[in-house]
Amino acid sequence: MTQRIITGVVAGAVFLGLAILGGAPFQILVGLLVIIAMSELFKMRKLDILSFEGILATLAALALSLPTTQYFPKLGTDSNLTLFTLVLFIMMGIMVFTNGKYTFEDIGFPFLSAFYIGIGFQNLLAARASSLFIFFMALFIVWATDSGAYFVGRKLGKTKLIPSVSPNKTVEGSLGGVISAIVVALIMIFLYPKLAPNTNIFKMILLVAIFSVVGQLGDLVESSLKRHFGVKDSGKILPGHGGILDRFDSMIFVFPIMHLLGLF
Questions:
Q1: What pLDDT digit, counting tens, does each position of 163-186 carry?
Q2: Residue ranges per domain, the chain?
């Protein structure tokens, strides 16, 4: 527990500090997180991240996640998708020269991994560029959901949520996570009303509930991946916490849905 707390404090301070600073330093950090997350996925699949498909998939994830228009303005506003597509076509073109050893189906895992990681971190950066309040609200919704689900689940949890994927999660814990997220979001809005989205309070409560549920879905998706590949944690880079995917699985889902629903 001591190791977990120390890791959480140090890693959290670095992440939040650079997030507040924003700009290139935070983008570099996100780029590193993308690379590590991709390496974790490939390791779970027992593939070499330094293989041609690993390198190309990581480049695709970086192309999708980082603000490429800022650095390559001539590529246009859809530069992320353009570069992502270019790397995908290169991966598909390699099939021609492998005599059937590398097939269309083999591209599926690297491509989906790059999209999964890339689109999540792309929206994380977009949220930070749009509004520091929205960015922090997303983080606090995720953290409040995790904490609420854990404590309520331990105290009141009886009904298993999806035992085949995550045997310790309960329906009661899930509802506790949603309520915790709503309470935390309302406190933020009450403390900083001028920074909060100009949205009806009842609609905001509904949105926060959706984000909390989506965050729990993101966590369950990663649990399903780990169960499928037979691993306990996605990685070991964060002692006591696991890997980068273990810490960002919910956010990878929450930020794109926040964007889809118009919060940034």
A1: 999 999 999 999 999 999 999 999
A2: 1-130, 132-264
H or E element at residue 227: helix 201-229
Kindly report the length of the chain. 264
SS3 7: helix
Can you tell me the distance from the alpha carbon of 159 to that of 127, in angstroms, rounded to the nearest whole number? 35
Model's pTM, two decimal places? Answer: 0.92
Amino acid at 119: I
Q: How far is 91 from 173, CA to CA, in rounded Å?
A: 43
What angle is formed at CA 60 by the lines to CA 31 and CA 41, rounded to 5 degrees? 75
239 CB contacts (<8 Å, ≥6 apart)?
A: 3, 4, 7
Contact 231, 24 (CB under 8 A): no
In whole angstroms, what separates CA 138 from the centre of its chain?
11
